[in-house]
Write a structure and sequence with these properties.
This protein is α/β, with parallel strands linked by helices. The protein has 15 helices and seven strands. The strands form two sheets. A five-stranded mixed beta sheet has the order 1-2-3-4-7, sandwiched between helices. A two-stranded antiparallel ribbon has the order 5-6. Strand 3, helix 6 and strand 4 (123-128) form a beta-alpha-beta unit. The longest helix is centred in the middle third of the chain and has 17 residues, at 190-206.
Length: 314
């Protein structure tokens, strides 16, 4: 039986960790979707540098209540280019909608701070998950006594994307964007979240992407949809078994193992067989290999910290 603290922790979705993990795993797909000109010039054979620590040290934060992971996520990434140079990319992801400081003012402030610190102008992209009807998005303009400033930045308005285009697209990230859009609309509607999860699981079977990409995309989709109903979880497991029987989903075995591992973890207090524990360890190892955070792995598998540390050191 969950304590109140455990239930609250389970229901508090880690948006910050979700978006950062997603971007680190699919940064190429993000550039292709949102910054196609930079994607064309980027050296995709090399890994970028994620400057999270440097960004936190550089940005001025008015107060702890303003820099809240439930409101926005910021990342600074150094993207290598084919000509041997590199570009700084500032990613700003607005999570909660119309609250907080004006986005365009925040974006120009960040640009100035980054330029002052690095002497380089960042390529800026704001990903908006909810509309902000009282703001002018994409540009900051100021004019006072003959001094004018116009600052334009890229934006991707998730809420405004066409559902059919996201579902038909050849970019794996589009399906995660679709899931994030729907999850925001049906946050407390478990039955509807179950339908979206099932819809996207089936759709992934039809995509010509690698089994690894499809598997990881489904893991991110499951995280953002955040299905909490145990009854619907069991129903999803039944659907997975049927899909596996159809013979057209090479990656279902892993997903099935992953979800069954989550279910087995719920019975930890009654004891687990060595086989069940090994299945959880195998699942946790795959999650580590895919770059998922330690917090998420411990939450999903209910393994001990020592178990996870042993996997990391192994």
């Amino acid at each position: 039986m969950e304590t109140i603290e455990q239930e609250a922790k389970r229901d508090c979705f880690d948006y910050d960790g979700f978006w950062k993990d997603l971007i680190k795993r699919f940064w190429r797909e993000l550039l292709r979707r949102c910054l196609p000109a930079l994607y064309a010039d980027a050296d995709l054979s090399k890994e970028p540098r994620f400057l999270d620590t440097e960004l936190r040290d550089t940005l001025f934060t008015p107060g702890a209540e303003e820099h809240n992971a439930a409101k926005f996520v910021d990342q600074l990434i150094e993207i290598p280019l084919k000509n041997g140079a590199s570009h700084l990319v500032l990613l700003h992801i607005e999570i909660q909608g119309p609250g907080g400081e004006d986005i365009s003012f925040r974006m120009v402030s960040y640009c100035c701070l980054i330029f002052s610190h690095y002497r380089r102008e960042p390529v800026a992209l704001a990903i908006l998950t909810s509309p902000r009807p009282n703001e002018k998005i994409g540009v900051y303009e100021s004019s006072r006594y003959g001094t004018s400033l116009v600052y334009c930045y890229n934006r991707f308005e998730l809420y405004a994307q066409d559902d059919e285009e996201l579902l038909r697209g050849d970019n794996p990230l589009d399906l995660v964007f679709y899931a994030a859009k729907k999850a925001a609309l049906c946050k407390d509607e478990e039955q509807q979240k179950f339908r979206y999860l099932l819809q996207l699981t089936r759709l992934l079977a039809e995509k010509g992407w690698s089994a690894e990409d499809r598997r990881d995309i489904l893991l991110f989709i499951e995280r953002i949809i955040n299905l909490r109903s145990r009854e619907l979880h069991q129903q999803y497991m039944t659907e997975l078994t049927e899909m596996k029987g159809e013979g057209n989903m090479a990656y279902v075995s892993f997903i099935e193992e992953y979800f069954r591992g989550m279910g087995k973890a719920e019975g930890k207090a009654e004891g687990k067989t060595e086989g069940a524990r090994q299945a959880l360890m195998d699942t946790a190892k795959r999650m580590l290999d895919k770059g998922m955070s330690s917090q998420d792995i411990l939450e999903y598998t209910h393994l001990s910290f020592d178990d996870l540390k042993a996997l990391q050191n192994g």
